[in-house]
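Review session, final week

We close the course with one last complete record, chosen because it touches almost every idea we covered. It is Xylose isomerase domain-containing protein TIM barrel, a protein from Sphingobacterium deserti with 424 residues. Go through it on your own first, then we will talk.
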Amino acid sequence: MKIDKKHIEHHNEQLKAKHQRAFDYLAEDITHVEEIIAKLEKFQIAIPSWALGTGGTRFGRFSGKGEPGTLEQKIEDVGLLHALNRSSGAISLHIPWDIPQDAENIKALAASFGLAFDAVNSNTFQDQPDQEYSYKFGSLQHVDPNVRKQAVQHNIDVINHGIALGSKALTVWLADGSSFPGQLNFREAFQNTLESLKAIYAHLPEDWKLFVEYKAFEPNFYSTTIADWGQSLLLANKLGDKAYTLVDLGHHLPNANIEQIVSLLLMEGKLAGFHFNDSKYADDDLTAGSVKPYQLFLIFNELVEGMDARGIDHATGLGWMIDASHNLKDPLVDLLQSVDAIKLAYAQALLVDREALKAAQQRNDVVAAQEILQNAYRTDLRPVVAEARLRQGAALNPVALFNELDVRNKLIEERGNQSVATGL
Ligand code: AOS
Ligand code: ZN
Ligand code: ZN
């Protein structure tokens, strides 16, 4: 299944008049609309290979169909997304779920869809059939040095796969922790983790980054060894300049002020990776912007402010990625919705009158500050995001075109009813 230019043009032709009316009406009042569009056009959000299949919960899984069974098919799926929205120009692989046997061919295939390779992800939260030691009681934190060594070696192997593909970052997410008080010594677990990360860091190429992901709980239910941004930042600072914190929106305790975390990490020059999703309770991995769109906007507001303050390029300075799981929706549609919601929040943040906000803060004008933020948030910028897509040669309405072209049924015709369990 391939989406060609003609499909997009035909679709856009039908929606163009209505779009133009909405866009012109909006653009008249936004003095820097061209600047916003230019930034939206450059903004790319990587797709994780594990989000292309139907997820599940520990209670069950309702299989999807026509899902990608091979790495080649996963790349094709992201290629479809990118053809529809021109904003999903990279794929993030998970080793060993995706082993690139022939890196050159895989690279060429990705390039044919205009895709690059984002951060590579290691996996020491599951045991693989051929491995010697079990990760049941942790990996990089483990009390047994043999287990730690095995986990370190796995991460080095992942770096090597990434080098062959042109990735520039390794993301380490650990399930390490404990489920019962007394099960481990917190300090020793942390120190073991640090030593293991140092060994991995030593194998990082000069132009690579190490993203240290944190998570409040789950799969362990009493302690997680890298549980919050403080613990991640502590490790990143001890490791060195190439190590950074990765913020996954679903990995905080309820009501955490994520926008403040983002702001301070940027201030320290230690924010580099981002996993988008949304949640009501914890790591629900729902579609970005589906539950708390205002929070997503506030996070972007801090991202834009903080990146501008440090002169960080919005498009290339941070590793933007989705990390989601879909139990009910078609994974591809869910990803299209996520990318759209992320770009909308970004556009809203770009609309904030920074000078006026700064002035309001300086005179402690709480009311004005709120008005400024909410004016931006409550402006319906969907036509601006659509205009950026139009100029990029993407579909004005990617979800509608996905349905019009009956993409999922075509994939089922090609691949059959195959379904792959993925995601966490
Ligand atoms: C797990 O909760 C984390 O979000 C990871 O970033 C990610 O989902 C995992 O590495 C995928 O297997
Ligand atoms: Zn994540
Ligand atoms: Zn997660």
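Two points worth writing down before the exam:
The chain has a mean pLDDT of 97.
The first helix runs from residue 5 to 27.
Good luck, everyone.
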